[in-house]
Amino acid sequence: PLYQKAHYLKSAPNLSHCPEDQGYEVAFAGRSNAGKSSALNVICSQKSLARTSKTPGRTQMINYFQLDEQRFLIDLPGYGFAKVNVNVKRVWEAGLSDYIEQRQALKGLVLMMDVRHPLQPLDVMMLDWCNELELPIHVLLTKADKLSRNQANQAWLQLNKHLQDKYPLASAQLFSSLNKQGLEQAWQKLDSWFDY
Ligand code: GDP
């Protein structure tokens, strides 16, 4: 019920425009096309919640969705835009690292990775940042429906092994927005971060 209450609050171009740093925030990040918007929509049981984040002008913003007085879901800009120039990338990286580093309200980061192509360079960068800053991270291996059950489990096991070795605060699960595989598990993780 908490997640169904999600509604768009505001968009901020950078940390200084974010709402007051209070309460609980959980941020969603991932490469463009990894399935972040679809996952947010399914998690919040809404058809087009995260479309708000894809409105022109908002794609490079920190988009805030409010759950209740104290709890917020944050849709971070998708990354992996190959054609963007180096300066734009640098500004984006700086903004994101500022946010992860400084935001007290931030309790955890949900990282979307396509189950068929996990651990791309920028995914690893996110894992490294969060690890350094001791921010818990939960990976949704998205589009699990695109693989057989066996293949998907293999991908999950392989990622887990990698995480266990290097990232003690990270966890991972399979997820599909198409058939809602893993939805309960994702809710449980969010509940724990939101202290709900
Ligand atoms: P975003 O750029 O990370 O927000 O990604 P989107 O949520 O817009 O999804 C990118 C594409 O992948 C779209 O064509 C979606 O329909 C598709 N997609 C997203 N999630 C799933 C999923 O769980 N299963 C399948 N089969 N396709 C998905």
Distance between the termini: 11 Å
Low-confidence spans: none
**Main pleated-sheet profile:** 7 strands, mixed
Q: CATH top level?
A: Alpha Beta
Number of helix segments?
A: 6
| Large-scale geometry | globular
Q: What's the count of strands? A: 7
Whole-number radius of gyration? 16 Å
Strand content: 15-25%
- Average pLDDT, rounded to a whole number, is 92
The helix/strand class is alpha/beta
CATH superfamily: P-loop containing nucleotide triphosphate hydrolases
CATH architecture: 3-Layer(aba) Sandwich
Amount of helix: 25-40%
Instruction: Strand order, main sheet: write it out.
Output: 1-3-4-2-5-6-7
What sequence of helices (H) and strands (E) makes up the elements? Answer: EEHHEEHEHEHEH
* Bound small-molecule species: guanosine-5'-diphosphate
Count the domains. Answer: 1
CATH topology: Rossmann fold
Protein name: Probable GTP-binding protein EngB
Keywords: Cell cycle, Cell division, GTP-binding, Magnesium, Metal-binding, Nucleotide-binding, Septation
Function: Necessary for normal cell division and for the maintenance of normal septation.
Domain EngB-type G: 22-196
Question: How does this model look, in words?
Answer:
Pfam families: MMR_HSR1. Keywords: Cell cycle, Cell division, GTP-binding, Magnesium, Metal-binding, Nucleotide-binding, Septation. InterPro entries: G_ENGB_dom, GTP-bd, GTP-bd_ribosome_bio_YsxC, P-loop_NTPase. Belongs to the TRAFAC class TrmE-Era-EngA-EngB-Septin-like GTPase superfamily. EngB GTPase family. Necessary for normal cell division and for the maintenance of normal septation. This protein has one domain: Rossmann fold (3-Layer(aba) Sandwich), CATH 3.40.50.300. It has 196 residues and is of the alpha/beta class. It has helices at 36-43, 51-54, 86-102, 121-132, 149-166, 183-194; strands at residues 7-12, 24-30, 62-68, 71-75, 106-114, 137-142, 170-174. The N and C termini lie close together (11 Å). The protein is built from six helices and seven strands. The mean pLDDT is 92. It is globular. It has a seven-stranded mixed β-sheet with strand order 1-3-4-2-5-6-7, with helices on both faces. Guanosine-5'-diphosphate is lined by residues 30, 32-38, 78, 112, 142-143, 145-146, 176-178.
